[in-house]
């Protein structure tokens, strides 16, 4: 990265001071989490692809560290340091650098070192109200920085989960669909097979054991597997338990004997994931798809509708916004609303701000109980560039 | 003494060193170590302006990448693991028929429910649910592993770097599965590991390699041609 001029630096700093000032007046306490983070937190929660996007290195003591790729995880860790019991409501704001490796080389809109200013809201039990609070704060912030004519894009992971819950499927298939949702290529391969009514054929070993396993409960099946391992002289290794190995063998046995899944399941999911429209229209369309398939996801749709109602009540014009069911499939820690703010003339891949709800992250980071959480971050360089372009 | 027209890097120890010497011998250019027997420079009989440098198999990759040597002999696994933009930097001139090693994905034999790469993603999901973390893959091939797993759509894992006795890590509990080299499979079998049906990442052997970044003047190209045609006979 070339050194930035003093003027550009001062402009960014000035903008950041204003943003953080606005967050502070809204009741968000300023925090400054560590820039160097233990890499294992990110590797365990996000996976090995973090390495392809982050600066991960080993220090002289052999500890794997990374330059934080975002501030949500560091701020969440800070919350847990302050509230180990995860029993307090807290609102934090921040401004500081984050770092991402850019495989195509750093560019003005995809720099490898950039600054994020944002907010995180932990423990607020009225989720829809907290979603709206954070989203309004983000739109107020970019507006106060001088941005106008921006577009909003929404998604809602909870709707997909509700749809999967409502489908008439064996639980093992629900687990698969929920997990693969975050891995679009594998997900589409899976849907393809469903649509064709293809059977998932297990390996030869499973087929050989299936006869002994069919119809057995977990405990009985474990005896079968244990006896087989003993007879073959195979020890248990690799940290997976006999219970886990047996559970998957039972799932595979069930697939072997079960009817293939109805093709309609794939069709409903495909229709659902094709929805992209202004929010109210999108909610109606999803309701139509669900009712057409005889599925009840009214509760999740009600939550989404209420959220949009609150937003409109607060003066947000949703007619120009987009709600896309596919949106937000990148970061697995999101669990509900996801959104981003797009400046005029900048495309979907370079939003000036983004955020969402991540109710499962804090337990994954070690919280002793679930903590509802929602946050938003502003890409400050992009915001400054977008405002500058509009005024020139 | 004038600077050599062509520099070849050759492994400095082990079977790769012996095999490389046999290879040049058979081609009619006997390899001679300069000075004492364990020196690090050598020459090819009949080619006085070719310098031979003995160095480690891993270092040869770096020398080729940066263009400090023209030619080198080392394993394809090391080249593909170490060099990010292989095609722009190194040319594979000739497979040499020795140093065979397969880079494979191996899991504990007791994972009766796992036989293919696609199983790993489901196992990762189950493992994360029960243990609160992803699968750990022990390997020294971090880049080959990452690329292969990404291609196969496996995401729920992390790599733990292992420089020795990788095959023992699932039994000791520091990993769940491994990516390692195998030639006969006996070591894996002895450690109660099995290779996944579609878990072959690379069928590696020693290659004669050329650096695209070295200074290739007319004489260097001519020498390279001569060596190459003698080796292919």
UniProtKB/TrEMBL annotation, chain A:
GO cellular component terms listed in the entry, alphabetical order: cytoplasm
Highest taxon above the source species: Bacteria
Domain Aminoacyl-transfer RNA synthetases class-II family profile per the UniProt entry, residue ranges: 1-387
Keyword Transferase: no
Any one GO MF annotation of this record: histidine-tRNA ligase activity
Keywords: Amino-acid biosynthesis, Histidine biosynthesis
Pfam assignment, any one: tRNA-synt_His
Assembly description: Homodimer.
Protein name from the UniProt record: Histidine--tRNA ligase
Originating species: Methyloceanibacter methanicus
Automatic annotation (TrEMBL), chain B:
Catalysed reactions listed for this entry: 1-(5-phospho-beta-D-ribosyl)-ATP + diphosphate = 5-phospho-alpha-D-ribose 1-diphosphate + ATP
Pathway: Amino-acid biosynthesis; L-histidine biosynthesis; L-histidine from 5-phospho-alpha-D-ribose 1-diphosphate: step 1/9
Protein's UniProt keywords contain Magnesium: no
Keyword tRNA-binding listed: no
Alphabetized Gene3D superfamilies for the sequence: Periplasmic binding protein-like II
Enzyme Commission number(s): 2.4.2.17
CDD domains reported in the protein's UniProt record: PBP2_HisGL3 (cd13593)
GO cellular component: cytoplasm
SUPFAM superfamilies: Periplasmic binding protein-like II
Family matches, as InterPro entries: ATP_PRibTrfase_cat, ATP_PRibTrfase_CS, ATP_PRibTrfase_HisG
Pfam families with a match to the protein in the record: HisG (PF01634)
Domain ATP phosphoribosyltransferase catalytic: 57-229
Lineage: superkingdom: Bacteria
UniProt record, GO biological process: L-histidine biosynthetic process
GO molecular function: ATP phosphoribosyltransferase activity
Annotated keywords: Amino-acid biosynthesis, Glycosyltransferase, Histidine biosynthesis, Transferase
NCBIfam families reported for this sequence: hisG (TIGR00070)
Family membership: Belongs to the ATP phosphoribosyltransferase family. Short subfamily.
Purpose of the protein: Catalyzes the condensation of ATP and 5-phosphoribose 1-diphosphate to form N'-(5'-phosphoribosyl)-ATP (PR-ATP). Has a crucial role in the pathway because the rate of histidine biosynthesis seems to be controlled primarily by regulation of HisG enzymatic activity.
Protein name (record): ATP phosphoribosyltransferase
């Amino acid at each position: 990265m070339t050194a930035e001029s003093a003027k550009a630096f001062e402009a960014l700093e000035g903008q950041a001071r204003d943003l953080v000032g606005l967050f502070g007046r809204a009741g968000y306490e300023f925090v400054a989490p560590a820039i160097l983070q233990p890499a294992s937190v990110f590797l365990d929660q996000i996976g090995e692809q973090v390495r392809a996007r982050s600066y991960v290195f080993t220090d002289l003591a052999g500890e794997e560290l990374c330059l934080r790729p975002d501030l949500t995880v560091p701020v969440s860790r800070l919350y847990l340091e302050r509230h180990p019991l995860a029993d307090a409501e807290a609102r934090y704001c921040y401004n500081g650098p984050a770092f991402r490796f850019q495989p195509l080389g750093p560019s003005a809109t995809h720099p490898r070192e950039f600054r994020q200013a944002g907010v995180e809201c932990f423990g607020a039990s009225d989720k829809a109200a907290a979603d709206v609070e954070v989203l309004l704060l983000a739109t107020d912030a970019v507006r106060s920085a001088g941005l106008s004519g921006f577009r909003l894009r929404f998604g809602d992971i909870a709707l997909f989960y509700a749809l999967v819950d409502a489908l008439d499927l064996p639980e093992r298939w629900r687990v698969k669909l929920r997990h693969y949702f975050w891995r679009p290529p594998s997900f589409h391969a899976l849907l393809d097979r469903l649509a064709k009514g293809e059977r998932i054929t297990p390996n030869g070993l499973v087929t050989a054991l299936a006869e002994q396993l069919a119809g057995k409960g977990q405990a009985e099946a474990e005896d079968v597997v244990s006896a087989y391992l003993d007879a073959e002289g195979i020890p248990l290794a690799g940290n997976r338990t006999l219970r886990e190995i047996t559970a998957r063998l039972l799932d595979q046995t069930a697939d072997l004997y079960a009817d293939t899944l109805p093709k309609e399941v794939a069709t409903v999911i495909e229709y659902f994931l094709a929805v992209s429209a202004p929010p109210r229209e999108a909610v109606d369309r999803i309701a139509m798809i669900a009712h057409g398939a005889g599925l009840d996801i009214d509760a999740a749709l009600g939550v989404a509708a209420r959220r949009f109602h609150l937003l409109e009540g607060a003066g947000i014009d949703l007619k120009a916004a987009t709600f896309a069911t596919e949106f937000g499939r990148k970061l697995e820690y999101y669990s509900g609303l996801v959104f981003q703010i797009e400046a005029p003339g900048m495309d979907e891949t370079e939003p000036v701000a983004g955020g969402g709800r991540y109710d499962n992250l804090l337990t994954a980071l070690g919280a002793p109980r679930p903590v509802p959480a929602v946050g938003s971050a502003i890409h400050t360089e992009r915001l400054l560039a977008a405002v500058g372009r509009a005024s020139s | 003494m004038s600077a050599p027209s062509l520099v070849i890097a050759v492994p400095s120890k082990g079977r790769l060193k012996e095999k490389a010497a046999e290879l040049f011998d058979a081609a009619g250019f006997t390899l001679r170590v300069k000075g004492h027997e364990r020196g690090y420079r050598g020459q090819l009989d009949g080619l006085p302006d070719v310098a031979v440098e003995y160095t480690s198999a891993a270092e040869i990759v770096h020398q080729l990448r940066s263009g400090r040597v023209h030619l080198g002999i080392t394993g394809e696994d090391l080249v593909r693991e170490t060099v990010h933009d292989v095609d722009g930097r190194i040319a594979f001139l000739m497979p040499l028929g020795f140093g065979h090693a397969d880079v494979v994905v191996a899991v504990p034999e007791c994972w009766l429910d796992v036989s293919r790469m696609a199983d790993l993603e489901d196992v990762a999901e189950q493992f994360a649910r029960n243990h609160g973390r992803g699968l750990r893959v022990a390997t020294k091939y971090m880049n080959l592993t990452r690329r292969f797993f990404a291609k196969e759509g496996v995401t729920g894992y992390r790599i733990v770097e292992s420089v020795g006795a990788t095959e023992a890590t699932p039994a000791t509990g520091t990993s769940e599965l491994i990516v390692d080299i195998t030639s006969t499979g006996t070591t894996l079998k002895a450690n109660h590991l099995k290779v996944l049906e579609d878990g072959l990442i690379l069928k590696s052997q020693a290659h004669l390699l050329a650096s695209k970044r070295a200074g290739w003047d007319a004489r260097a190209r001519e020498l390279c041609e001569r060596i190459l045609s003698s080796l292919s006979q």
